[in-house]
Write a structure and sequence with these properties.
Helix content is 28%, strand content 46%. The protein has one domain (2-144): Nuclear Transport Factor 2, Chain: A (Roll), CATH 3.10.450.50. It has a 6-stranded mixed sheet with strand order 2-1-6-5-4-3. The chain has helices at 2-30, 33-37, 62-70; strands at residues 40-49, 57-60, 80-92, 95-108, 111-126, 132-144. With 153 residues, the chain is α+β, with helices and mostly antiparallel strands. Strand 4 and strand 5 form a beta hairpin. The protein contains 3 helices and 6 strands; from the N terminus they run H-H-E-E-H-E-E-E-E.
Length: 153
């Protein structure tokens, strides 16, 4: 029975982590600022590395994260979709390392295009309320259009 309880908790944790990954995407695409910021711990870090040697972006703490998402373009003015693909979740009690690919689709000149892609390297924690949140989310942008902010060109 103990093995069944461990398996059940592992499945619950993995589903809750996937929920956070998916909430992150839906919230940033449609301007749910509170939901997006709540994907991070209070002292959470969002770090983005850009291709071509551009300086990275690093946001630390809830106030910086909220300011970032408040100014992020969203539907219906900016049609984009953040996609997370192929998550690999490594649980260690109340901590997790998660690796996913990402792709950002955008409508550009009336046509759907891949704007950028790369991978996320996440450190996550199960919080007191049972939700899994990012302690640190590292986005490695591996390829992007020339008009991508801080991208090539």
């Amino acid at each position: 029975m103990e093995t069944d309880a461990i398996l059940l908790q592992t499945m619950r944790d993995e589903r809750a982590i996937l929920r956070t990954l998916h909430t992150y995407c839906h919230a940033i695409d449609y301007g749910d600022e509170a939901a997006w910021a709540d994907c991070f711990t209070e002292d959470g870090v969002f770090h983005v590395e850009f291709p071509g040697g551009a300086p990275p972006m690093r946001l630390a703490g809830r106030a910086a994260l909220q300011d970032f998402v408040a100014h992020h373009p969203r539907a219906p003015e900016a049609l984009h979709k953040h996609l997370t693909l192929n998550p690999l979740i490594d649980l260690r009690g109340g901590e997790a390392k998660v690796r996913t690919y990402f792709q950002m689709l955008m409508e550009i000149s009336g046509l759907p295009e891949t704007y950028c892609f790369g991978r996320y390297l996440d450190q996550m924690r199960r919080c007191d309320d049972g939700a899994w949140r990012f302690v640190e989310r590292l986005a490695e942008v591996q390829s992007s259009r020339p008009d991508f902010p801080a991208g090539p060109g």
